[in-house]
Amino acid sequence: MRAFAFEGGFVPPSTADFNLPPAFGNSEFTTKPILLVFLSVILISVFFILSSRKAAVVPSKLQFAGELVYGFVRNDLGKEIIGAEFMRFVPLLFSLFTFILTNNIFGIVPLLQFPAMSHVSFPYVLAAFPFIAFHYVGIKKQGLGHYLKGIAFMPGVPKAVYILLTPIEIATFFLVRPLTLSLRLFANMFAGHLLLLVFIMGGDHLIKGVIGLKLVAPFSFTLGIVMTFFEFMVQCLQAYIFTLLSALYIAGALSDEH
Amino acid sequence: MARSNEEGAMWSIFGYLLSGLLVWGGIGAAIDHWVMHRNHWFMLVGFLLGMGASLYLVWLRFVKE
């Protein structure tokens, strides 16, 4: 896109805006997304250690906030969906939810303002955890042969139809599930960040233009602010959906018949 | 419970439809590429077949039960 920008014209935000230079030093490991990921881990740890350290029957405000998040993941995502054995999976779901939520919200926190999940490698790695977890759980619970048979062969179908259905089932379980899990998160964060860039950078460009353009600039900035609130909603929703689907996949692997 | 189950069902259905298209459309495209060389009729057939098969699968999984 940058090649088309002529002298003094508006340079639209592009994928190049996502490849940030190293924040310090000259290493690939000191770029903003990576530092933000480390920051998120520190913030999450500090928050939950502080909120659970002096646990009391009558909770403080901090403990209440911590328990609210934990209770939400434990009850609404773990207990409701996975059922009897949910306690084993709460640590996984809780880590996924808080980590994704914090990193997503970094996208609209002033000065940080970059969602690490808009680099596709982070969601890929994150999707690997529930992917390994639900296959492992399924194989352990049902045995390898029975588990694969449950995936590939739907009961109550004429034998000839398996030729059509089995490849779809296998592709769904081994390819499409981890792929959609990660790409949905990536695409939402990428598009959201790009949207904010368009409105803010566009407003910035308009306000430097002639008087007519200056008058329109506030609208661009206003929409930028509106979109920031919209992004906050999307960011929470994506963290929720990622965890929800992980729980559903685990629940599916635990139940005998698919 | 109902709300999150609906959400999950929606994405499972989406996954099935997508993989139906990918698998059978992909097989059709491969036949076009390696056997037919010129036109894309097998890819079209593959897409339709995949769509039909995955709709059938969705019906089996979510409607029949």
- Which chain pair shows the most residues in contact? A-B, 24 and 26 residues
The 3D shape of chain A can be described as: globular
Order of helices and strands of chain B: HH
| Portion in strands of chain A | under 5%
**What is the helix content of chain B?**
over 70%
* Spans where pLDDT lies below 50 across 5 or more residues of chain A: 1-6
Q: How many distinct helices of chain B?
A: 2
Work out the number of β strands of chain B: 0
- What is the C-alpha radius of gyration of chain A, as a whole number of Å? 23 Å
* Average pLDDT metric of chain A: 87
Rg from alpha-carbon coordinates of chain B? 15 Å
Q: How many structurally independent domains of chain A?
A: 1
Q: Calculate the mean pLDDT score of chain B and round it.
A: 84
Give the domain tally of chain B.
1
Tell me the span between the first and last alpha carbons of chain A.
Answer: 47 Å
* β-sheet strand percentage of chain B: under 5%
Number of helices of chain A: 7
What class would the helix/strand composition of chain A place it in? Answer: mainly alpha
Low-confidence stretches of chain B: none
Verbal overview:
The complex is a heterodimer of chains A (258) and B (65). Chain A is globular, with a radius of gyration of 23 Å. Chain A contains seven helices and no strands. Chain A is 70% helix and 0% strand. Chain B has 65 residues and is mainly alpha-helical. Chain B has one domain. Helices cover 89% and strands 0% of the residues of chain B. In chain B, α1 (2-36) runs antiparallel to α2 (41-63). The chains are: A mainly alpha (258), B mainly alpha (65).
Characteristics:
heterodimer; A: 258 residues; mainly alpha; 7 helices; globular; B: 65 residues; 89% helix; 0% strand; elongated
Detail the topology: elements first, then pairings.
The complex is a heterodimer of chains A (258) and B (65).
Chain A: H1 32-53, H2 61-82, H3 90-105, H4 121-142, H5 144-152, H6 162-207, H7 211-254
Chain B: H1 2-36, H2 41-63
Helix pairs in contact in B: 1-2
